[in-house]
Structure prediction request, 457 residues.
Amino acid sequence: MSRDVILIDDEPHLRTATAQGLELAGFTVKDFADGEQALHGLSRSFEGVVISDIKMPRLSGLDLMTRVLAIDAEIPVILITGHGDIPMAVAAIRAGAYDFIEKPFAAEMLAEAASRASEKRALVMENRALKAALSRGSGLEQVIIGRTPSVQRLRSQIAAFAATDADVLINGETGTGKELVARSLHDQGPRAKGRFVPINCGALPETVIESELFGHEAGAFTGAAKARVGKLEYASGGTVFLDEIESMPMELQIKLLRVLQDRRIARLGANEERAIDVRVIAATKEDLKSAATRGDFRGDLYYRLNVLTLAIPPLRERGDDIPLLFQHFVEAAATRFKTEAPPTGREVVAHLMAHAWPGNVRELQNTALRYALGLGLEIDGKDVATAATATPDAELSAVTLTEQLARHERQIIADTLALTGHSLKATYEALGISRKTLYDKMRRFSLGKPPVDDDEA
Prediction:
């Protein structure tokens, strides 16, 4: 996270002291006596915070803020004000200022406000970077999303395999996106103008799947009142996708093997075979070689399919792609439901990265959809973080600076309690205060009656 600060104050001694206090708190400070100088070179790529005095010659802090927000409305601007300027400062916050600090102030108070503002700016920049990464993608990068080496390799394989007309076997756990990969192979290849016909072998009863694949003639069986074209024939000129092929009945596997070898089918009840021009893409979540060894899958069909193979990595093996995928799914859901996409802050990303995602990309997509609808971040049935925890810059009423600081203090304590699972020991150690101070503040801010402390239980 960037710790850059642009500081503007026309009083040299105060500017120097303020800059030194911020530098001691870990900030990199560029200080200016004049707002015009400070604005030179400021752009949307600036990752830090602007801190300015209000009363200055030539360009006041309020005018400076207006010009900063015109460059980027999400750059945090903290105003330093004298006591008589507080109504003006409150009005400035309504106009977009992040916060204001009343003179005289302790260096720690300004550093704390600058830290909060830096965190907010970091979230803005991270979200922009994710959106930019998504928008830069073209072709397969817009469909198979990710920047990890395993996903880059998968995209390269898809591009190479799509150019051929050979059958492909896709291996991947449930929810990894096997149909998406199959569609990409179809869309990127010479059969893109033909039909893509998906069939879930595990979802069809044995009594139905043969008719679905091969079709039937009128009277072929009870209820077959008229002839019907099967999926393999219907997909001629295009691609048929056989998902969960490990579930295909053994006797039907023999017929499929003949289709793969001869590219000819016979409808149920028909004597004549028909030529078909179809590419077959099969997918499985099982180890077909092991299944063939056990006798649960035909070995000859396995070896016929195992010419070109694609392995889709599970989400737990491409963890660095999780924020990018989540942002993509949130944006897509927000567009679909005509709502504004909520920000994905660091706490949200931390929860996402800590989860194992047994349901893979499909589970992440469902989580993102609920998040986009404002239902919070629900993982494993638990709401671990709210979609927008709190409005980042809620409109302030004309209250005293003391009351505003109390609000900030209460929020910090409440957030820390939540992050530590309401462990009091972890909370007061994280905040650098004593146990008694934490107890007193919890009572003062109505944060609940302190339970028995961890090391007292």
